[in-house]
Design brief:
single chain, 262 residues, alpha+beta, five-stranded antiparallel β-sheet, 13 strands
Amino acid sequence: MVKLRKEARIQFTLKELEEQPKEKTKGMLLIEAENFTRGNGLKTFDGYGKDIGVLLSSGPTQIEFDLPIEKAGKYSLHMRYAAADSRPAKLSINNKLINEMATGSVTGTWYPDSQKWFWEGTFQLDAGINVLKLDWATPTPHIDKILVLPSDQSDHPAADSLAHLHNTFTQQWIAHLKQISKDKKSPLDEWRKYIENPREPIDEKLIENIRSRFAATHERDSLHSLIHDKNGPFKTPKDIEKLFPQNGAGGTKATPKTAQRH
């Protein structure tokens, strides 16, 4: 749900930025990447950048953005880009390294139709001008936009606990949670408001209630049926053994506990 809320919050914010006067954007910054402040990047509005304009380059690249911040605090950085190959960058804020693998995701192609948003880090920003620096040892991905948002504190503990989860499993849950709005009989219907309004703080009592329901589920219970549905969010992905590293010289593959049915 945390990942789904991040995606929803970006779309929610983009719509708000379009509708609100600049002075009422509540500390949010939306920057066209090709309008970088300093650096040796290039820009194009044709081909790879048709109808949107993108930042790109032909070799090792360093660029900087000056971020004007009204109120000091925690902020999250999201970047929209397309990449057929992984091109990670070192991301620094005010000369402090934040992420050594920023912009390393792959979207399928270099073209506008595969542009996607990615969260690249959460960090402290000071009031005034802050310098965001990106340093690639390769050419850059084709970057469309940069979005800086006051950090959603309510999701931080949950987000930190997701680091160990493989993307295949989280994508199954995201796909299922998107269906909640179409099914009011879903045993997860109580999560609806947190998906429909990504700024609604997550209630800790709700989380404890859900944990209790999962622990107490039994046969003929709708939640039990969902958990054991072979096509549900807990389904075993195809070729699951390829998702995990081999153990030992003999090549025996580890069987993850999270993939076993209980």
